[in-house]
Amino acid sequence: MSDTAESSGPKPDQVHNRIAMLRVERRISRREFADALGVHYQTVGYLERGEYSPSLHLALRIAQYFEVPVEFVFSLDPFPTIGPSPTT
């Protein structure tokens, strides 16, 4: 079996994050955020979508930027959904 096997669920080594929520909450564009971190704006998109896991150094810089603990931004488990539950 290859490392690129099809998968419909979250990857076991995926790092979940709240970057998009924090960025939108503070009304910061992807480009502004990327410039502040010294990364390409597309990297921010990859991070937000969980397509890329940051290095420890980048994760710490992101937490420092938002002035929150790193575990507030990143988790190995999915974060609970915020907001009203959909009605059935």
From TrEMBL:
SMART domains: HTH_XRE. Signal peptide: none annotated. Keywords: DNA-binding. It comes from the Bacteria. Residues 19-73 form the HTH cro/C1-type domain. One of its GO terms (molecular function) is DNA binding. InterPro entries: Cro/C1-type_HTH (IPR001387), Lambda_DNA-bd_dom_sf (IPR010982). Coiled coil: none annotated. This is DNA-binding XRE family transcriptional regulator. It comes from Microcella putealis.
